Amino acid sequence: xxxIPMDDVQALWNAxxxxxWASLHRTLEQRKGKAEGISDRLIDLxxxxxxQWAQSHHPFPDSPQRLYDMLNQAIQSKR
Length: 79
Hints:
The chain has helices spanning 6-15, 21-31, 40-55, 64-78. By secondary structure, the protein is an all-alpha fold. The protein has one domain (6-78). The longest helix has 16 residues, at 40-55.
């Protein structure tokens, strides 16, 4: 079962200059293929989710914990 750990979510939060879905999507794209951090498999799951949320103007969470909850809930619903 896919799951993104809190430390990876915190790293994404810190690496995303503007806390919105489009910026998070770009951060994920930049991290794809890197040897460290979040796996490419998880990035492949998250890219369409963040793109859809950006296009639908889905509210961006106000904390890393809420981002963690939202992303993991979305991953689980994809299964």
